[in-house]
Amino acid sequence: MIINRLKHLLSAGTALVSMLVLWAVPASVQAEWGLNLQRPVTEIARVQYDLHMLIMYIVTVIGIIVFAIMFYSIFKFRKSKGAQPAKFSHSTKAEVIWTVIPTLILIVMAVPSTKALLLMEDTTESDMVVKVTGYQWGWHYDYMEEDVSFFSKLTTPQSQITGTETKGENYLLEVDNHLVLPVGQKVRILLTARDVIHAWWVPQLGGKKDAIPGFINEMWIRADETGTFRGQCAELCGKDHGYMPIVVDVVDESQYQAWLDGQRNKG
Amino acid sequence: MTTTVADHHHDEVPKGITRWLFTTNHKDIGTLYLWFSFTMFLIGGAMALVIRAELFQPGLQVVDPHFYNQMVTVHALIMIFGAVMPGFVGFANWMIPMMIGAPDMALPRLNNWSFWLLPFATSLLILSLFVPGGGPAAGWTIYPPLSVQGGMGVDLTIFTIHILGMSSILGAINIIATIMNMRAPGMTLMKMPLFVWTWVITAFLLIAAMPVLAGAVTMLLTDRHFGTAFFDPAGGGDPVMFQHIFWFFGHPEVYILILPAFGIISQVIPTFARKPLFGYTSMVFATAGIAFLSFIVWAHHMYTVGMPLSGELFFMYSTMLIAIPTGVKIFNWMATMWRGSMSFETPMLYAIATVALFTVGGLTGLMMAITPADFQYHDTYFIVAHFHYVIFCGSVLGMFAGVYYWLPKWTGHMYNETLGKWHFWLTIIAFNVTFFPQHFLGFAGMPRRIPDYALQFAEFNVVSSIGGFVLGYSQLILLVVVIKAIRGGKKASAEVWDNPEGLEWSVASPAPYHTFATAPEVR
Are A33 and A76 in the same domain? Predict the structure, then answer.
């Protein structure tokens, strides 16, 4: 019995310590390990990431304390070791302490959370706007001020899905027409849907929002670096919910203009 | 000498199938509910294994996406409405009358009907899988417009929900009437066992919440067939309104799922710590506080719908607030263990695991309460991990604790402790192997309700699926334990355990068919 509990404690402790160590490593390294959020490339995503790390540390510490006390109790206060049961069943002091301290912890968490939310919901003074429409099963992008619009659907072939062909590196995360955005500009994204509720989500760009038929939602992003970023639909929308990914290319200003011209000429 | 008909029935336990069809005895009805719950648990579990089999590797190997979505949907509906809720009603039926010194429930015939509605309703749900178009495939949350698109299976599901809801409401009325009116003289409200308290509060939640669900699914039914447009924007309706109504039910529902488990744990831990429950009064108030707060947090399930900022802030704060009374309960159980004299028979193992692992789920819940962070977690496997930790480790492990704790009282035999411990360790280890990696899958970006996934999610999905299969098959050990205990085993005394508290331990084991025909004295 004791051996079991020691092993239990040891493995729990190892897991917790290694997780703490891994999370302390910078985001750029962590993405490959798959233990944490993807590396943020916008201010919003960074704010979310930092908030996430803060609350994760807090709850991990709380968890360690709770588990430690429980394991200690299990070791120390066992009948087989001759422990005699105490008789107390009240302690106003203890109850006040363990009500007040969690309340204080919550207030500490609520302050940065409120600030983050205020930042995220401020879509004013954007540099451009894109309307995203979800439909069963793909996305439509409409650069409303530029007269450019197109559909974007999954390009992973059926043969890869059923397994007759080896899966490519971007299996299920590749589309025919990428959403192209200029780096460093505040992009206001309007979201709606054609048929059922979908949700647009690119983790590295920060956050997600539902695309609801008959309604228009909005969010904003400002990418700090160029690159290709992938995401997926995040609201069950029918049989191919898992097969309508999102690919965003963030490029510098001149490339963006060139791409826009190309799109307009395509007709 | 003549005997009246009443006397004749009073002494005999009826026999045959009609016993079970027509019984009004709370112990028989409790048994029916518990067997029904376990059967549904295994059926829902089989569906989970279909899900985990498909997710074992990237690609589609086992089922097509539409059927996969049906499995996801019906797995949840069966587990929530067929396994957990009826299971706790089974415990309520068996234990509440005995715990308060009452001869039976207040409304015994209603009790019988409340049970028999269940197999009828769940047959409709299972039938839905076989009708054209298949079963519901919009998730157990059946959001429109997707659920308006579905075929006949959705209508069958709506009827199922109506009937199950009726059963829950009638059961809740029965429980409240029993607890309020039939306590033995001397048993004031603040002397009731905590299990009775958690159930009376749960019963009020049921009466408040189930009709709201009925309203939501009825509007869905009329949108589907009778030309209304509650949730259809083309007709002036709002799909998000369904979500508000659904989750106004849905959040109290999750507390309905957990509070009875908290009650069971509050009975088990003091017995095996040989120490009274710490802070009885604050446990009662914390439970009531959780129940109250459960009505003002619902939109934390909907942070991404596009709520105004003030709404997002309000629900973030109220959701964080619920952590306080929940934490109080956890600390009180820990304080019960502290400086006790503990032994670790299977019920205690399960009770401790419930407290520890529910805490994990509660802490991830706190993370999700933070709205900006939830924009990354929502609709990912992080959520799936969270609710399996709280529902499986909270509700199901709590029920397992209760089964092992009270099985000797029900059957008159001690269960096989070795088998019980095998069941425990396999379940706990397999559960964590299945669900802990899902936290990481959620962080890494894997959405939920998808039959197939990108390659970076492969490794943890393999681990999770292996755990899932071990977890599922391990539950058959419980079946063996229960059947063996029914048929034989070491005879159990009335007390069964070491000086446990509660009126149920003052009657023989197995408990006689009728107990407390005369009210006991409670000092």
Answer: yes
What global pTM score does this model have? 0.93
Could you read off the pLDDT of A172-199 as tens digits, one per residue?
999 999 999 999 999 999 999 999 999 9
Same domain membership, residue A219 and residue A116 = no
List the catalytic residue out of B122, B202, B326, B359. Answer: B326
CATH number of the domain encompassing residue B305: 1.20.210.10
Whether the pLDDT of residue A266 is over 50: the answer is: yes
Number of structural domains (chain B) is 1
Catalytic residue among B183, B329, B378, B409: B329
- Chain B contact probe: residue of A36, A65, A71, A79 with most B CBs at under 10 A: A79
Average pLDDT score, chain B: 95
Average pLDDT for B202-218: 98
B238 counts as catalytic: no
Q: Which of residues 252-281 of B touch A (CB under 8 A)?
A: 273-280
pLDDT at residue number A121? 87
Chain A residues with CB-CB distance to B240 below 8 A: 212, 215
pLDDT score at A207: 77
* Three-state SS annotation for chain A: CHHHHHHHHHHHHHHHHHHHHHHHCCHHHHHHHCCCCCCCCEHHHHHHHHHHHHHHHHHHHHHHHHHHHHHHHHHHCEHHHCCCCCCCCCCHHHHHHHHHHHHHHHHHHHHHHHHHHHHHCCCCCCCEEEEEEEECCEEEEEECCCCEEEEECECCCHHHHHCCCCCCCCCCCCECCCEEEECCCCEEEEEEECCCCEEEECHHHCCEEEECECCCEEEEECECCCEEEEEEECCCCCCCHHHCCEEEEEECHHHHHHHHHHHHHHC
Looking at the structure, tell me whether residues A103 and A144 fall in a common domain. no
- Is B513 touching A (CB cutoff 8 A)? no
B317 to chain A: nearest residue by CA? A110
> Which residues from B are below 8 Å from A201, CB to CB?
379, 447
ipTM: 0.92
Residue A137 sits in the same domain as residue A255: yes
Shared-domain flag, residues A136 and A238: yes
What is the nearest CA distance from A252 to chain B, expressed in angstroms? 26
The overall average pLDDT reported for chain A is 89
The answer on A132 and A116 residing in a single domain is no
Under the banding of pLDDT at 50, 70 and 90, the label for residue A3 is: low
Provide the number of structural domains found in chain A: 2
